[in-house]
Amino acid sequence: MTRMLLVRHGQSEWNAQGRWQGRADPPLSGLGRRQARHAAARLGRVDAIVASPLRRAFDTAGIMAEQLGVGPVIPDADLVERDAGEWSGLTRAEIEARWPGWIEAGRRPKGYENDDSVIERVTRALERIERRHRGAEVVIVCHGGIIYALEGYHGDPAGRIPNLGARWVTHHGGHLELGDRLLLASEDELTVPSVL
Question: Which residue is catalytic, options 13, 38, 66, 81?
Answer without folding.
Answer: 81
